[in-house]
Amino acid sequence: MKTATLASIALAISVSVANAQTIGVSMTNLDKFREMLLNGVVSHGKTISGLKLVTANAEGDNELQKKQVQQFVADKVDAIIMMLSDGDFGSQMTKIAADAGIPLIYINTTPSNLSDLPDNQVVVASDEKDSGTLETKQVCSLLKGKGRVVVLMGEVFHVAARTRTQDIADVIATPECKGLEIVEQQAAYWSRDYADQQMQEWLAAGVKFDAVIANNDEMALGAIRAMKKANIPMKDVVVAGVDATDDALAAMVAGDLDVTILQSAVGQGAAAVDAAVKLVNKEKVPRENNVPFELVTPENIAQYLPKSQ
Predict the structure, then answer these.
(1) For residue range 190-225, what is the model confidence (pLDDT) as tens digits?
(2) PANTHER family given for it (predicted)?
(3) Which of 19, 102, 185, 300 has the most Cβ atoms closer than 10 angstroms to its Cβ?
(4) Which stretch of DSSP H or E encloses residue 27?
(5) pLDDT for 30-77, tens place per residue?
(6) Under 8 Å between Cβ of 199 and 192
(7) Angle at Cα 106 formed by Cα 29 and Cα 161, nearest 5°?
């Protein structure tokens, strides 16, 4: 993605004066997956005549994101699509949009005030109970139900990190996977570099493990990088992540990554834009709109390579 896309920019898309609609898109930050998500929004927006998208990147700063949304309101956008970094921040965003009467679509991250959303505010995401569950069941299968596991978590306050980590524990509690044991579990903040550092610490401490289960692909890739620097044969360790990013799929093709879960950035982006347009047009949209997760393995990766590009 070009640097210009990361700033607050306007993308005029086949603007029709009579039916022009403007949607503000607020991203909490832009890593590999979030770039894909934003591209999914923008790409689908280009297919809709008379639509203008204005995007903003808050660079991980909640207060900056709040100010950007307030600017969207001041600019009288017709709808707002927002990815939160923290679900607990949703109540503030809901009030700002509700007071202005502007439809709000939460994308990817479910706000903690989900049950209190007004009729013109909805969520487009994937059910996180499926992501960590699919991931861990596949690891359990590859290990034949027995082995030592280390877990790399995202930010502990993030609903996806909490849910995916709980998914891991729930699968390990099942009869067929009770032979798995979590020997270490630490936050690496969705980051490849933090995961690399954490894995180095585990290796230096002599931690023994058969699998790495990460809440996202970036952390899985960081763990792989650290293990390869330590000359650990990747065929001896099962590594799993979530998102099916282009880098993750490349690592799978190379034989380094064993499991990832497609969280369709294209699907979420398109669904969010469609929901925004419907709400602007006073049509009803379900409060929760789930885009299914899909298991990706070396056996079926060929069908997923085009989807992640």
Answers:
(1) 999 999 999 999 999 999 999 999 999 999 999 999
(2) D-ALLOSE-BINDING PERIPLASMIC PROTEIN-RELATED
(3) 102
(4) strand 21-27
(5) 888 889 899 999 999 999 999 999 999 999 899 999 999 999 999 999
(6) no
(7) 60
Can you tell me the distance from the alpha carbon of 281 to that of 275, in angstroms, rounded to the nearest whole number?
Answer: 10
Eight-state DSSP code of residue 77:
-
Polymer length in residues for the chain: 309
Supply 278's token pair.
Answer: 């419907």
Look up residue 176 and give its two tokens.
């067929």
Phi, psi of 196 (to 5 degrees): -60, -50
- Is-contact 61 85, C-beta < 8 A? no
Query: Going by DSSP bridges, is the β-strand pair 121-125/79-83 parallel, antiparallel, or unpaired?
Result: unpaired
Which candidate, 216, 243, 238, 241, places its Cα nearest to that of 227? Answer: 238
Token pair listed for 260: 């990832």
Q: Which two tokens stand for residue 160?
A: 């996806």
